[in-house]
Specification:
Blueprint (H helix, E strand, L loop, with lengths): L1 E2 L10 H17 L14 E5 L16 H15 L3 E5 L16 H11 L3 E3 L6 H9 L5 E3 L13 H5 L2 H15 L4 E4 L10 H9 L5 E3 L1 H15 L5 E5 L4 H11 L5 E4 L4 H7 L14 H14 L2 E3 L3 E5 L8 E5 L7 E5 L1 H9 L6 E5 L12 H15 L3 E4 L2 H9 L8 E2 L3 H8 L5 H4 L5
Parallel strand pairs: 2-3, 2-6, 3-5, 4-5, 6-7, 8-9, 8-14, 9-10, 14-15, 15-16
Antiparallel strand pairs: 1-10, 11-12, 11-13
Helix pairs in contact: 1-8, 2-3, 6-7, 9-11, 10-11, 12-13
Bound molecules: adenosine-5'-diphosphate and magnesium ion.
C-alpha cells in the first residue's frame, strides 16, 4: 500500500529532521581522513584497532574469518612497508575479566596462517611484559594484544567518566598504557567506530601529535556510506525491515527527506499497519511506538517521500520450523502471525526497487532464518541485485541483513555490504562518530 497521508493534526518536525541531514552532509564532506597509505610507517611501531570480534563455536573455533580477512589489506600494507604492528581488538563480552573462552589466541593463529608469518599473542593487552614485547618488535613483525575487554576500562563510556573522576582516571591510564607502545595509531574497526571505547577514542586522544589515521576498511565504509548520503543519484530508495521499529526510528527520520521512497517490511511494518487501523493478528507490534510510526508517515507525506507497506502477508498459527502457512491479504485474522511479506507485496516492492539508482537496505523482510519465510527477502534481494546490474549503487547495512544477503548468495551483486552492524545504523541515523572525527584530516 502506498501511503501519501495528508498533513494531519499530529505534530511533525520536518525542520529538525532537515537539519540533521545537513549535519550529515557536512560530516560526509569533512570525512576526508588521512589513511594509512598517506603516512610513512617504516621502522615505526603501529598500534592498530581492528574488529576481530569473530563468531566462535562452543569450542572457541572461529566459524567465519571474514573480519580477519577484511583487515588484511591494511595489515599487509603496514608490514610490507617495514612497520611493526601491534594489533588490538575486543572479542565478545567478557565483562572486564580474563575469560579463556574469549581469548584472541584463535584469531592470532588464523591471522598467522593468512599472513604466512608468526603472529605473537600477548597474555594481557597492557603491562610490563607486553610493553617489552612491543619494544622488541622488528620491522615487519606482527603482534596481537589479548582481548581489550579483559579490562573493564576499555568500555567505560565518556559520559560515565565525566561524572566520576575515578572512572576518568582509570580509562585514561588504560589508554596511556596502550598508547605508549606505539608511534602511530591506525583505526580500522568500523564495527565499533560508533563507540567511545578507550582503544577507539581515548588512545588517539592520548596520542595527539603523532599520526592517527584510518585503515582501508574504514576508508571504504566512509566512502560508500558517506557518498551515498551526501550525493545520492535518484531515485534513491530505502528498504527497511527487521524486528523492531524502535531500532530504526532514527534511520527513518534521517532518510525521510533524502530518499524518494521508503519500503517497509519485516516485523516493524506491523506497528505501522496497526496504527493505520489494520488487523495484524499476533504479528509483532510495538504498541508504544504506534504514535511515533504515524508521525513518521505524516512527516514522509509532508516532504513528498513515498512510503510503501505490505499489502499481503505470509502468516502462521505457530512459529516453528516447517509450520504450515498461508497468505493473508490486507487484514490478518486473530491467532495468525505474519512471518514474511506476501507474494504480491514482494512483487510490488521489487518493481519499486529495480528502477532505483541508489539503494540502502537495512533489515530483512521476514524471518529469513526459517525458510520458506525467506521468500520475500529473496525477491527483494534479487531486485536489489538487478538494480545494481543496471547501474544502481546498493548498500546493505545491519548484521542480519548482511547474513540474509550472504545466505541467499547475492552478496557479489551488491555494491557494498557494510561490516558494521550498529555502526552502519548509526551512520544512517546521521550520528557523528567521534572516534573517527578525532583522527587526522588529509
Ligand atoms: P539488522 O541486523 O539487519 O539490522 P534486525 O536485527 O533489525 O536487522 O532484524 C532482523 C530480525 O528480524 C531477524 O532475526 C528476523 O527473523 C526478524 N524478523 C523479520 N521479519 C519478521 C517478522 N515478520 N516477525 C518476526 N521477526 C521478524
Ligand atoms: Mg540485527
Amino acid at each position: 500500500m502506498t501511503t501519501k497521508l495528508h498533513k494531519s493534526e499530529t505534530k511533525t518536525n520536518v525542520h529538525q529532521s532537515g537539519s540533521s541531514i545537513k549535519n550529515l552532509v557536512t560530516a560526509g564532506i569533512k570525512m576526508a581522513k588521512k589513511t594509512v597509505a598517506d603516512i610513512d610507517v617504516k621502522g615505526k611501531k603501529v598500534l592498530m584497532r581492528c574488529d576481530f570480534n569473530v563468531p566462535l563455536d562452543e569450542n572457541s573455533n572461529i566459524t567465519s574469518d571474514d573480519r580477519i580477512v577484511k583487515a588484511l589489506p591494511t595489515i599487509k600494507s603496514i608490514l610490507d612497508r617495514g612497520g611493526s604492528l601491534i594489533l588490538m581488538s575486543h572479542l565478545g563480552r567478557p565483562k572486564g575479566r580474563k575469560d579463556e573462552k574469549l581469548s584472541l589466541a584463535p584469531v592470532a593463529k588464523r591471522l598467522s596462517e593468512l599472513l604466512l608469518k608468526e603472529v605473537i599473542i600477548t597474555d594481557d593487552c597492557i603491562g610490563d611484559e607486553t610493553k617489552a614485547k612491543a619494544q622488541a618488535l622488528k620491522p615487519g613483525d606482527c603482534m596481537l594484544l589479548e582481548n581489550l575487554r579483559f579490562h573493564k576500562e576499555e568500555t567505560i563510556k565518556d559520559k560515565a567518566a565525566k561524572e566520576d573522576a575515578q572512572l576518568r582516571q582509570a580509562k585514561d591510564d588504560f589508554a596511556k598504557q596502550l598508547a605508549e607502545m606505539a608511534d602511530i595509531y591506525v583505526d580500522d574497526a568500523f564495527g565499533t567506530a560508533h563507540r567511545d571505547n578507550a582503544s577507539m577514542y581515548t588512545v588517539p586522544q592520548v596520542m595527539e601529535g603523532k599520526p592517527r589515521v584510518i585503515g582501508f576498511l574504514i576508508e571504504k565504509e566512509l566512502k560508500y556510506l558517506g557518498d551515498m548520503l551526501s550525493a545520492p543519484e535518484k531515485p534513491f530508495v530505502a528498504i527497511l525491515g527487521g524486528a523492531k521499529v524502535s531500532d530504526k526510528i532514527g534511520v527513518i527520520e534521517n532518510l525521510l527527506d533524502k530518499v524518494d521512497r521508503i519500503i517497509i517490511g519485516g516485523a516493524m511494518a506491523y506497528t505501522f499497519l496497526k496504527g493505520m487501523g489494520k488487523s495484524i493478528g499476533n504479528s509483532l507490534c510495538e504498541n508504544d511506538f504506534i504514535d511515533k510510526a504515524l508521525q513518521l508517515l505524516d512527516q514522509a507525506a509532508e516532504v513528498g517521500c513515498e512510503v510503501m507497506l505490505p499489502v499481503d502477508h505470509r502468516v502462521v498459527r505457530e512459529l516453528k520450523q516447517g509450520a504450515s502457512h498461508r497468505i493473508a491479504v490486507g487484514d490478518i485474522d486473530s491467532g495468525w502471525q505474519a512471518v514474511d511479506i506476501g507474494p504480491s507485496t514482494a512483487k510490488k516492492f521489487a518493481s519499486k526497487i529495480t528502477d532505483a539508482k541508489t539503494i540502502v537496505w537495512n533489515g530483512p523482510m521476514g524471518i529469513f532464518e526459517m525458510p520458506p519465510f525467506d521468500e520475500g527477502t529473496k525477491t527483494v534481494a534479487l531486485a536489489v541485485a538487478e538494480a545494481t546490474d543496471n547501474g544502481a549503487r546498493s548498500i546493505i547495512g545491519g548484521g542480519d541483513s548482511a547474513s540474509a544477503v550472504e545466505k541467499l548468495d547475492v552478496q557479489e551483486k551488491i555494491s557494498h555490504i557494510s561490516t558494521g552492524g550498529g555502526a552502519s545504523l548509526e551512520f544512517l541515523e546521521g550520528k557523528k562518530f567521534k572516534a573517527i572525527d578525532i583522527l587526522d584530516e588529509k
